């Protein structure tokens, strides 16, 4: 599966939630610039599976990368 790449501005906010099954997982909130379904605006991600040193991160469904404003 090829995951869509979404650019975000600002810093992601990572936090934990409890699923219906009782598992605790990490998700994030970001200001998306180009989300394929939600467009531009505040987005809560699916479960975070990997954080990278460059500020990007991967979720179950999407790859999120910082938006270069320069």
Describe the protein's architecture and organization.
This protein is mainly β and 70 residues long. It has one domain. Helices cover 0% and strands 61% of the residues. It has strands at 5-18, 24-35, 39-44, 48-51, 57-59, 63-66. The protein has a 6-stranded mixed sheet with strand order 3-2-1-6-5-4, with no helix packed on it. The chain is globular and about 35 Å long. It starts with a strand and ends with a strand.
Main structural class:
mainly beta
Question: How many beta strands in the DSSP annotation?
Answer: 6
Terminal-residue CA separation: 31 Å
Shape by Cα distribution: globular
**Spatial order of the strands forming the largest sheet:** 3-2-1-6-5-4
User: How do the helices and strands follow one another from N- to C-terminus?
Assistant: EEEEEE
Mean pLDDT: 94
Q: What is the count of DSSP helices, taking H or I runs of 4+ residues?
A: 0
Radius of gyration: 12 Å
Give the low-confidence spans: none
What does the secondary structure layout of this molecule look like, with pairings?
Elements: E1 5-18, E2 24-35, E3 39-44, E4 48-51, E5 57-59, E6 63-66
Parallel strand pairs: 1-6
Antiparallel strand pairs: 1-2, 2-3, 4-5, 5-6
